[in-house]
Specification:
Blueprint lengths: L1 E7 L4 H14 L3 E7 L8 E9 L12 E6 L2 H6 L4 E10 L6 H4 L9 H7 L3 E5 L1 H8 L5 H10 L6 H11 L2 H15 L3
Length: 188
């Protein structure tokens, strides 16, 4: 399984990749995770590759190989589209985070990104992860809400994910993140 987690710096893509990697590892899979930070300071694009299976030789996902792209922001979903394989799926947060060229007025934020993706036949699940994260107790839990949405696409039982959360998240944030995961998991 080839999964790309894409977003911008500060959204928690790295934590989400660690949670996914820990869940897959606990089920006996070979797991490779590669973090490509790029301009990962707050606001810059970040991508993480997570591959799991019986024998993973490389952590890198090439264009046309991603089974699932988990996008924490609309523009990032569109930016990484060439990596999605035919028949793959994008799970995307509906949130828009304004990049620096838009802030400076050099560019406009593209409108209708999700409509454009679905019009070309992309399997897209839209999620208002920010609203669900706030419901769970904090906007920073967007990453775990989206991970809950992803979890329904994978063959791991819910308790595997809860165990991964318990092993990975600081105790003071465990309840909020568990709630965020469950809210994401409940999204249809």
């Amino acid at each position: 399984m080839n999964i790309m987690i894409v977003g911008v710096g500060g959204q928690g893509t790295l934590l989400a990749s660690r949670l996914l990697g820990n869940a897959a590892l606990s089920q006996g899979f070979d797991v490779k995770v590669s973090e490509v930070h790029g301009m990962s300071q707050r606001g810059g694009s970040v991508v993480t590759y997570v591959k799991y299976g019986h024998a993973i030789l490389s952590p890198i996902i090439d264009k046309g190989e991603a089974d699932i792209i988990l996008a924490f922001e609309q523009l990032e979903a569109a930016r990484w589209l060439p990596y999605l394989k035919i028949g793959g799926k994008i799970i995307a947060n509906s949130q828009q985070i304004t990049p620096m060229p838009v802030i400076t007025g050099a560019m406009a934020y593209p409108l209708g990104l999700f409509d454009a993706l679905t019009s070309i036949g992309v399997s897209l699940q839209r999620v208002d992860a920010l609203a669900l994260a706030k419901q769970a107790g904090g906007a920073k839990a967007v990453n775990v809400v989206l991970l809950g949405c992803l979890a329904k696409q994978l063959p791991f039982k819910r308790r595997v994910w809860h165990d991964a959360l318990q092993k990975t998240v600081k105790p003071q944030f465990l309840q909020m993140n568990t709630t965020a995961f469950d809210l994401g998991y409940a999204v249809q």
